[in-house]
Specification:
heterodimer, A: 487 residues, TIM Barrel, 5-stranded parallel beta sheet, 4-stranded mixed beta sheet, B: 212 residues, alpha/beta, Methyltransferase, Methionine Synthase (B12-binding Domains), Chain A, domain 1, Rossmann fold, 9 helices, binds cobalamin
Chain lengths: 487, 212
């Protein structure tokens, strides 16, 4: 049995959806994009142009839900499938777009640069529980105008895994799309085997900004999958009750589903969630709060009910260091996300309210992801019945260390974590240097980065990537990129 | 307890009806409107502001108190001298060009309003010229700029440069904020102030108004 978490009883989930539909039909959404308002009006939405508001009738929502795929896949740079977004499958992805990096050597939160990003990309390549890379932080040594496309460029150059990313402006999409085309080789190949997934966020309450809705429509038309991620804050920009927040979240997400399906029917979408509570004491929206995690899991249930694969920001922490708070919030989130069956879990590595990433934490969180994945593999009988013969063997041999049954099932039953998890007897731990978690993680980062092998992406594709990035950099006033292409 | 203290207490407790009634009672008893304002409403808000700075109370408490104070002001307004309700100063506020994040900026605006500032909110994605033009037009002493993206925060520099270019630097002070910023960044771009949250923003703006 796959263990599961259920927070919403059927009638409640159903009511959340029906209330969200009612909100869309009556209050509608404010859309700051004339083209999208026209598109909505052409397909039966009731559009008030002066107020930029579109009311979405039930029939329009139904058509969108009928058109949206129930499952889809992502593929790596070599064209191999990496993600199957369907059912209860869980895939972990490093949290994205951090502003600061926790410096492993000094413990300071500082602005990251290209060299950090390259190390990050190589690290993620060596951590198998991360099915995707994300454009995890923003190198500060290139002009701001290209910093969103530049991190995609670095990821495509150094890693093979598909990239969870996003644009910061409407204009940046074109450059990023170009980079993906360069890596995949052709528009048809990119559509057939998506190499990236973009994040597009409505603005709470019930609004789409010009930049993010442009990204949504551009992705849909380019055949690039999108996670639609509403970000309502309970008790501030959404009702304080978790149910009320889930209704608003569902309405905001559904409006994105409608827009994407009108722009290009059949566009692959994840039902994303970054709803959070608002902590009035610190004026922040904590991701490590249990209620925030409950919103992620609740929204996941709503998405599944609508027949859509899902995403959430969970398995991350608000701590500022790689400390016990970081571990407990990330670990709890990873376990809940896996039990809930969130198809794409964005979070690992992140600290400080989504503002910081950490290479050392990525290594530690990788273990939390491994634990969570083991948990949901569940307890299943494996040549266990009848029990007597094996126990007879044990009584006879005095142990089962080398029994055939043990050798057959050891790997599937018991997960051995990497060296950051300490299980040694104290004396051995002392003998090996009494290393703290931080020291073990630093060592592991070095080891994995050093073991990196160049991506199998073809040299032509790498050169094409470089040419396109250099052109974008020159347009932004930068003569030379702070990066070389490795053969 | 005298009437003014009771008014201050009800402001602190965030009770608009009680504040309105007590303010009317004070005026009827012959207390000067300016005295009701100073010794009642502002005294109450000052206590609230201090408690907020000390993190003894939180944002919603301040908003409730500000609303209670407003209800008292409505009673006083017709009787206050021609100058009307004195403001703590005028602030032009907005999110930097290219950036759509406004939650933090709105909180700063709400708290500045609660502290008696006259806030002109220009919204999001505000070009540098608009910040400066609006500040000049409204005679604002302070421009407050918010940025949440590493890609947009650099645009704050242009606002500071424009204020200087137009020779307004002694009249108009620029304060910046937002999660990706630091005090060091603010200094580097030549801003006059920085605050990491809304509560400290109010204190910084007060200093800047004093300096402008
Ligand atoms: C909510 C949110 C959104 C909402 C914004 C809704 C809104 N109306 O503002 C939505 C979902 C729309 C959104 C969109 C996007 N976002 Co956003 N967002 C956030 C999030 C989670 C919280 C911000 C927030 O509101 N915090 C709560 C408020 C109260 O805090 P605050 O803003 O820091 O403000 C306080 C202080 O900073 C200070 N302050 C703020 N302003 C000022 C001004 C002055 C003068 C002073 C003195 C003080 C001051 O006082 C405030 C109160 O205490 C942050 C992560 C984070 N934790 O910051 C990401 C974050 C900022 N977003 C991010 C991104 C990438 C985006 C998008 C590009 C995503 C996308 N592809 O769609 C778009 C941006 C489009 C654009 N061009 O702007 C990144 C930025 C990455 C980077 N390196 O720059 C972040 C860091 C998240 C992440 N790691 O991915 N986002």
């Amino acid at each position: 049995m796959r263990p599961t978490l259920c927070l919403l009883e059927d009638p409640l989930a159903e009511r959340i959806v029906s209330e969200a539909r009612d909100v869309l039909a009556t209050l509608g959404v404010e859309v700051h994009h004339d083209g999208v308002l026209n598109l909505l009006a052409d397909h039966g939405a009731d559009v008030d142009r002066a107020a930029r508001r579109a009311r979405l009738p039930a029939a329009l929502v139904d058509r969108a839900l009928a058109a949206v795929p129930h499952a889809f896949r992502l593929f790596d740079a070599a064209g191999e499938p990496t993600h199957d977004f369907s059912g209860w499958n869980v895939h972990f992805t490093p949290g994205s777009a951090a502003i600061r990096l926790l410096d492993g050597a000094t413990g300071a939160l500082r602005a990251p640069v290209t060299a950090d990003y390259v190390r990050y990309a190589r690290l993620v390549a060596g951590l198998p529980h991360y099915a995707a890379q994300s454009t995890a932080f923003i190198p500060a040594d290139v002009p701001a105008a290209i910093s969103d496309s530049y991190r995609l460029f670095l990821s495509l150059l150094h890693g093979e895994k598909p990239v969870i990313t996003g644009a910061f402006t409407a204009e940046a999409f074109a450059v990023m799309h170009d980079l993906l085309l360069a890596a995949r080789g052709s528009d048809a190949a990119l559509r057939e085997r998506p190499l990236a997934l973009f994040t597009c966020c409505p603005t709470s309450p019930l609004q789409w900004s010009e930049a993010t809705v442009s990204n949504l429509v551009d992705c849909a038309r380019a055949g690039i999958p999108v996670e639609v991620v509403a970000v309502p804050f309970s008790g501030f920009l959404a009702p304080v009750t978790l149910v009320g927040t889930l209704v608003q979240h569902a309405a905001e997400n559904l409006s994105g589903v409608v827009i994407a399906q009108l722009a290009a029917p059949g566009t692959s979408l994840l039902w994303g969630c970054s709803a959070a509570i608002f902590d009035i004491r610190t004026e922040t929206a904590p991701l490590g709060a249990v209620e925030t995690m409950m919103l992620a899991c609740g929204a996941n249930e709503v998405g599944r009910r609508l027949g859509m694969p899902t995403q959430a920001y969970i398995a991350l922490s608000d701590a500022k260091a790689l400390d016990a708070q970081a571990g407990l919030e990330t670990g709890a989130g990873a376990v809940l996300a896996a039990l809930s069956g969130i198809n794409s879990v964005s979070g690992p590595g992140m600290l400080d309210l989504e503002n910081a990433q950490s290479l050392e934490k990525l290594v530690v969180d990788h273990e939390a992801c491994g634990m969570a994945l083991r948990l949901v593999a569940g307890i299943e009988p494996r040549d266990d019945f009848p029990a007597r013969p094996l126990l007879e063997e044990l009584l006879r041999e005095k142990h089962l260390l080398i029994a055939a049954h043990t050798r057959r099932h050891l790997a599937g039953q018991i997960r051995f974590p990497g060296p950051v998890i300490d299980r040694a007897p104290e004396a051995r731990w002392q003998e090996e240097g009494a290393l703290t978690l931080g020291a073990r993680a630093t060592r592991e980062v070095e080891r994995i980065v050093a073991a990196w092998q160049p991506s199998r992406l073809g040299d032509d594709a790498k050169r094409a990537l470089l040419r396109r990035m250099e052109a974008a950099a020159r347009a932004a006033g930068l003569d030379a990129l702070p990066v070389r292409v490795e053969a | 307890m005298d009437l003014l203290t009771r008014i201050a207490n009800e402001v602190r407790a965030g009770e608009p009806d009680a504040v309105r009634a007590l303010a009317a009672e004070a005026l009827a008893a012959g207390v000067a409107p300016a005295e009701v304002l100073r010794g009642g409403l502002i005294a109450g808000m000052t206590v609230v502001g201090d408690a907020f700075r000390l993190r003894e109370i939180f944002l919603p408490d301040v908003l409730l108190a500000a609303r209670a104070m407003q209800s008292g002001l409505e009673v006083l307004r017709p009787q206050l001298a021609a100058g009307g309700v004195p403001t703590a100063g005028r602030v032009v506020l907005g999110t930097v060009r290219g950036d759509l994040h406004d939650i933090g900026k709105n909180l700063v605006g709400i708290l500045l309003g609660g502290a008696g500032f006259d806030v002109i909110d220009l919204g999001v994605d505000v070009p540098p010229e608009r910040f400066v033009d609006s500040a000049v037009e409204h005679g604002a002493a302070v421009i407050g700029i918010s940025a949440l993206l590493t890609t947009t925060m650099v645009g704050m520099r242009e606002v500071v440069a424009l204020v200087r270019e137009r020779g307004l630097a002694d009249r108009i002070k620029v304060i910046v904020g937002g999660a990706p910023l630091t005090e060091a960044f603010a200094r580097e771009i030549g801003a006059d102030g920085y605050a990491y949250d809304a509560a400290s923003a109010v204190g910084r703006v007060k200093q800047l108004v004093g300096a402008a």
